[in-house]
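ugh ok fine here u go
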Amino acid sequence: MTVFTPNDDSYADLSDHDSFINGAPYNTFCRLRKEDPVSWCDGGNHKGFWSITRHEDIMLLNRDFRRVSSAQGIRLEDQTYEEYLARRTFQETDPPEHSRTRMLVAKAFSRPVVAQFEADIQQLCDQILDEALQSSEVDAVKKIARQLPMRMLGRIIGVPDQDLDWLVEKGDALIANTDPDFSKHVLDKDDTDAYRLMPFRSPAGVELWNYATKLMESKVRSRDKLGVLSLITQPNSRGEVISDAEFRNFFCLLVAAGNDTTRYTIAGAIHAIANQQGLLQELQQATDETWKNLPDEFVRWASPAMHFRRTAIQDVTLRNQKIKEGDKVVLWFVSANRDSDVFEHPYRVGIARTPNPHLGFGQGGPHVCLGMWLARLEVRILLKSLVSRVSAITQSGDHTFLRSNFVGGIKQLPIRITL
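structure:
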């Protein structure tokens, strides 16, 4: 039994967020990989773009920042240069500028620093499961998947627990700004021109900016530590420090991306456990060595970061297609992670899949996910703790997906649990 059977007609409009409300249109991606792996797509309300769908080609372009740049935006929407400058994070820059900023913040998310959180994460997982499993039926996203990255966020940035729901709500409004369940200002349905200079074209960006500024000021006044953020504000070996604007933009990125991608990976994993026959038993019998690699398989499976856009800064020829300077180029990581030339049985969760060259963290290029070590640790500890407590997990109602072609994930998942 497969966990998810694609049901799109193979000709989904990839520019339309509605094409993703039943999950990613995998039949369309499969057809494109076979027939037209470098395909021109109409952009709908925006300029058209090239869709890159094969794993091999995405790996090639993902590292080639000298020909395809992140420094004109990483989402499909068109931006003026003024909008780009106002809204960009360090994700939307190229080396050497990207490398400079990355060096300032990467130390806080290195593998040794993240490893120090293992006991904290285990404690949080125990608390979350103690609360969630008091009921035999729960929404696995609301009660389990959302809880860990949200509570861990508080430990990382040193904010009061009472602020966490608000922070996550604002992060959702940023990164899921095409879904009316998360944003009052839906990007492609409402007039958002008043917010065009705000992060993700959303007023939530300014609210988070203001929160970050007050957080910094209060911590400095009280001489209190900022959690992991205290590392980010320290000078590097050359004496460089992160600017106020860089800090605010990074804070917005941390709140949004640091929550959503891990949440949707955990949600996708629980959905798989509830639907793929025998998977729960396989996980219960898995060795510690297998569990070390399992988070990568669940990230491949969920593929929460579905695409990142680049812009050609010179003419590029790929598979006989001529990509012109200025053209938008979209790297569909969600397609690469189901490429049957790379992954055997791509529509099943394989707990022994190794090596696992998935691209869920944007591997292979300068923009590889900063939080991948933390995400792996959170996913491993929570899922391992969950399966150790239950004898059965079944889906008890319909699940729903985000309305987004950028961030993919299950936003509601009713399950029935037998302890």
